[in-house]
Design brief:
about 270 residues, alpha+beta, two-stranded antiparallel ribbon, 7 helices, about 50% helix, elongated
């Protein structure tokens, strides 16, 4: 199935790729989707990250043959070269990037077997570009300061011209109002953690415990508000489907899990 490739200014939906641990039909289906998407868009390489998938998987087309690279690790490099690069995330944009001339990587194939690959020239550059995505980076993170300023100026002008479309059901903005709710929740969690630490230096821990309980209820309440408001806010941007519900659930889950750990430790040590 052909998947939608995430493009600027829509934020990439995951912060970094997660290594594949189970080599099953879900992985095989993802690989086929990547192949279909590459063929449809005439691409030589694509990372699962670019279609909003969290798996550490990239596909490279070399001489019309697909190389299925899972959990890649760069283990060696040599030389230096400057290349003129483009990327699907910034369509119709190019930039000069300094790369390694030759690289060596280890990875696993779709059957979980360990493999090695040494590459130079265009293939080495392509591998480096796709591996960058698995760490949550695009080629803008590899630019020199001067090149980055030039590039950002160009995309800023383009973004300003399409601002009206972005805010009326178009692209996802870079920041959301819901982030302020999350910030308050995180600060309250830090306050609870500080109360826990303080309990080791005070005798009247009952007061600290009560403060923690009320603060914990506040965190839970804020997380509930965040969960529902985040979904409401996301529906205003039609191209945010790939970066909404999964991130919202994950954010709330991490927040509540962190809170539970602190409260359990407090209960155990204070009482």
């Amino acid at each position: 199935m052909v998947r939608t490739i995430i493009q600027y200014p829509t934020p990439l939906s995951v912060e970094y790729a997660t290594d594949v641990r189970v080599f099953d039909t879900e992985l095989f289906s993802l690989i086929e989707d990547l192949k279909d998407t590459m063929n449809e868009n005439h691409l030589d390489g694509l990372a699962a990250y670019q279609i909003g998938n969290y798996f550490n998987v990239i596909l490279i087309k070399n001489n019309d043959t697909f190389i299925e690279i899972i959990n890649p690790r760069l283990i060696g490099h040599s030389g230096s070269v400057e290349s003129e690069e483009t990327t699907a995330y910034y369509p119709n944009k190019s930039a000069k990037i300094k790369r390694f001339e030759s690289v060596s990587i280890v990875y696993q194939d779709k059957n979980g077997e360990d493999q090695t690959l040494k590459a130079s020239g265009d293939l080495a550059i392509l591998l480096q570009r796709k591996i960058d995505y698995t760490f949550g980076a695009t080629f803008i993170h590899k630019m020199s300061k001067a090149e980055k300023e030039r590039f950002e100026k160009g995309i800023s002008q383009k973004s300003s011209a399409s601002l009206e479309n972005q805010t009326q059901g178009g692209y996802c903005p870079r920041t959301f109002k819901r982030d302020k709710i999350l910030l308050v929740s995180n600060l309250l969690t830090v306050f609870i953690a500080l109360l826990f630490v303080s309990s080791f230096f005070m005798h009247n821990n009952a007061i600290l415990w009560n403060l923690q309980v009320y603060s914990a209820l506040g965190v839970v309440g804020l997380d509930i508000v965040y969960f529902f408001y985040a979904q409401y806010e996301g529906k205003k941007y039609v191209s945010c489907d790939s970066c909404q519900l999964g991130n919202i659930i994950g954010t709330v889950t991490v927040s509540l899990l962190r809170l539970c750990i602190i409260m359990l430790l407090s209960y155990y040590f204070i009482w």
